[in-house]
Amino acid sequence: MVTGAPATMLDRREELTPMLAQYVDVARQYDDAIVLFRVGDFYKAFCEAAEEVARVCELTRIEREDSTGTYTACGIPVDNAPKYLKRLLDAEYRVAVADQVEDPEAASGLVDRAVTQVLTPGTVVEEELLAAGSNTYVACVASDAGGTEASTRTGSGATREDDTDPTYGVAHVDVSTGECAVTAGDPAAVDEELSRIGPAELLCGPGVDRAVVAGADCMVTERDADEFAPEAARAVLDRYGDSERFDAAERVAAGALLSYAEYTQGDDGPLAYVRRVRRYDPRRSLRLDATALRGLELFENHVGSGRTLFDTIDETRSALGRRRLRAWLRRPLVDADAIRARHDAVAAFAERTLVREDVREALSAAYDLERLAGRIARGRANARDLRSLHDTLVAVPEIREAISGVGALAGVRGELDALDDLRGLIDDAVVEEPPQEITEGGVIRAGYDDELDEIRTTAREGREWIADLQASERERTDIDTLEVGYTQVHGYYIEVTNGQLEKVPDDYTRRQTLKNSERFYTPELKRREDEILGAEERADALEYELFCDLRDRVADESDRIGALADALARVDALAALATVAVDRDYVRPELVDDAETTEGDAGAGDRVGDEVGLGLKRSRHPVVEETANEFVPNDAAFPRGTVALITGPNMSGKSTYMRQVALAVVLAQAGSFVPAESARIPVVDRVFTRVGASDDIAGGESTFMREMRELTDVLHDATGDSLVLLDEVGRGTSTTDGRAIARAAVEFLHDETGATTLFATHYHELTDLASECERVVNRHFAATERDGEVTFLHRIREGAASSSYGVEVAELAGVPESVVARAHGLVAADRDGAGESPPTPAGDDAQRTLDEVATNGRDPDGEGDAELPGVRGDAVADLLAALRDLQLAETTPLEALNHLHDLQRRAEDAADAGERP
């Protein structure tokens, strides 16, 4: 990547033209970025930088030649700059924008230029470069001096008690909104936090082992080590509050990060809209690492284009609410009282349709206050931004009125400050539909400033005099084709065609000669022109001055605007969750603690499971049910510490079932209702997933190695309050090794960890653990087979499955018939050779066993060819055929006894007839 000062120009700066020399000087200062230099209507880059810009932006390079030689140039149109800047940022370039900082008309010689902003993937603030409703974070990881101070302090966020682990600070800031937070922890905590933050850019301190941040999928920015010096970081952080409330590593990370944010925004002082730096403990929220976020598809779908959980529940009406809902889903609560309070608020909206719809309609008019406040504080807001703020404030009283008297919403209602004084100030000052530019007038209302009104009156009276001039001059001169006009270059004029020039009065002074006419002015016209143009120029300058003063006054209220934005975001997110609950028939979950029981609770008879723990009745997968033609609900009843071994055919729904259970927990702790008829959910501290196959070829890890690493994290970090999903552990190696690993993992989770675990497996031998371990239970997904066709029922039932139907699924996938037939034969031969018995079938799987016996001539215990004492093989075949044709599901007990008696009689008759070997 070629950036910084063009190498071909560095050694001969003294030979360059003044403008190119100025470019080189700026590029030397920003040698880690591509410098875009404002020249007229273009931002230009030169030499090597021009080649990079042309390649990334697909623009044409131009070869320029002057007295110093030939060089390459490339230009980006100023009016279309965001389009090309986004391409550069997506390619992980830094861009330093050098604007003209001097009025060209006032400049003597070369116009001064200076970098006004450094654009990076994590610090952009332009609306055109930001995704609405999402945060764009730049993060920083830094180490403390000795690696001990933060780890010994309470609430540091470290996840493992290991005094030998270094302690790192992890800070992140959204430069567009001012949100800033910091925590500390060990390497495992750093990796987990970065996965949850999802930064677009990462700063790495000098003492940070790169392996710690290897999982961050973003641009890594190098900064001078001096920026991470403890005293330098402390000095920066003190501008945002008391730096002493942070640990050493947190202080360095936050201070270095804010210093970088200030640098990219071209600010010499603190970012005024960063109201505070929040210190947080990751353990105070439900922890979801990168594997869980990916496995549960909260924000990204495996196929890259399908719906996610967030897509499914996002019924927000504003960018504020969308970001808040995303944050709630990324960091669900673990405090039961806080969760119940959020459920109360959602229930209040769900129960009041008119209130909910009134609030949502009002929120539709709300602009993104957080980003508006940021632009205002940075001095980059225009008049339309202030009107957007005004229009949002107009909606606040409507929302307050709609939720008045609703007890569960009283707290947030009290925080909905309508900022009446600010709203009135903006309305008094700014016209309803202001122009885009704030330097060309037409922004400030009449009556707001007396001096401006007087200047405007002078200009208006002058224009009225000129408007009457054409008629009066035609009458005075008897020139009926005389016209009065104006050009920017020549000012006001009186135009007379060549055929009427003999009628021109003596007081006319020639101003311009055209092909068919002449243009003149009079002394009075010249005086009026000076008055009008002078008044308009003074009015524009005064309007700009008044607007900047107004913008500064609004910026002084950044704290109040930020507090209002926070309240509106919560209202929008709560109303959205209520809308989802009502429209999709979600139910409010009951939270249970270890000490609670369900005895005597209202509605307990409708719930699943009697023991305290996870209980879902007819639960659904929130995403799949929105896209599937028909979704089969399932129950889930797992006391705390249960290890549920889930067996069953491929494609029967095991993975979907496990995910829907976990998603019910995540939704509940985020404050949402859940897709079920009833739900009892214990608060969990963490959700672990080991679902799906993936590898890391670039990192040198196979699918199996990655699976084992993820399993390692689960077995190390899960607690008795965790929820664990494990799918097909051990499948990436030999059957013997894989089965051994899977069994040992189940035993460890049961004996050592105590986490509630859903363990899907095709190792049917593991189901024996249900008889050996107190809290291990068997569950299976039922299927039926008739005439070689498998039907997946997608229903979970007690007990173990009889088969995985792998060959049948292969046939459904279109595997050639010869391969399928050979596979069936190998399966049969393997069973015969191993002498193993499949697990006892349960439910509808019993019918398949009869079919198999009749078709393959095997007895139910899998001991080879079926034999009856004294009966020949052809008679056996007849008897088995009769068994196969029985419709057990449609047979009464009495009919079954009659059938059994008939079969017994036929067997005896066959033996008496001498059909013996």
From TrEMBL:
Superkingdom as given in the UniProt entry: Archaea
Residues covered by region (Disordered): 147-166
GO biological process, one term: mismatch repair
GO MF: ATP binding; damaged DNA binding
Cited Pfam families: MutS_I (PF01624), MutS_II (PF05188), MutS_III (PF05192), MutS_IV (PF05190), MutS_V (PF00488)
Domain DNA mismatch repair proteins mutS family: 722-738
Keyword DNA repair carried by entry: yes
Keyword ATP-binding recorded: yes
Keywords, ordered alphabetically: ATP-binding, DNA damage, DNA repair, DNA-binding, Nucleotide-binding
InterPro entries (UniProt xref): DNA_mismatch_repair_MutS, DNA_mismatch_repair_MutS-lik_N, DNA_mismatch_repair_MutS/MSH, DNA_mismatch_repair_MutS_C, DNA_mismatch_repair_MutS_clamp, DNA_mismatch_repair_MutS_core, DNA_mismatch_repair_MutS_N, DNA_mismatch_repair_MutS_sf
Residues annotated as binding ATP: G648, P649, N650, M651, S652, G653, K654, S655
HAMAP family membership: MutS
The family this protein is said to belong to: Belongs to the DNA mismatch repair MutS family.
Function: This protein is involved in the repair of mismatches in DNA. It is possible that it carries out the mismatch recognition step. This protein has a weak ATPase activity.
Record's protein name: DNA mismatch repair protein MutS
